[in-house]
Amino acid sequence: MCDEIDHLEDANTLLYELPRARANGHITGATVGVLGVGTDDTIRQTLSPTVTDTPMETESSVSPSDPAAL
Questions:
Q1: C-alpha to C-alpha distance for 67 and 56, rounded to whole angstroms
Q2: CA torsion sign, 59 to 21 to 18 to 45?
Q3: How far apart are CA 24 and CA 66, in angstroms?
Q4: Nearest 10 degrees: CA dihedral of 51, 53, 57, 63?
Q5: What is the pLDDT of residue 5?
Q6: Which DSSP symbol is given to 12?
Q7: DSSP 8-state code for residue 47
Q8: Beta strands, E only, 1-70
Q9: CB-based burial of residue 31 (10 Å sphere; 0-12 exposed, 13-18 middle, 19+ buried)?
Q10: Using one digit for the tens of pLDDT, what is the confidence trace for 7-23?
């Protein structure tokens, strides 16, 4: 899980490489998935097409909550 993913300087590299780590030979004993959490819902517009056409991409939005609701 990557919290505040919208604050990364180069989210494209991280989001491209992590899901492909096994296929690229960087790891052998695990399968990697990425869950990115952020508050800027426009981050998708800044990502490269090679990142956004990754299989199984799903976007979810939640309403802001106050501390009492949590």
A1: 32
A2: negative
A3: 42
A4: 70
A5: 79
A6: H
A7: S
A8: 2-3, 36-37
A9: exposed
A10: 888 888 888 888 888 88
Provide the residue count of the chain. Answer: 70
Which DSSP letter does residue 7 get? G
Task: Report residue 65 as tokens.
Answer: 């909550």
Token representation of residue 2: 């990557």
Token pair for 38: 């952020």
Dist CA 10 CA 47 (whole Å) = 9
Structure tokens at 10: 């180069």
**pLDDT tens-digit series, residues 16-60:** 888 888 888 888 888 887 777 777 777 778 888 887 776 666 667
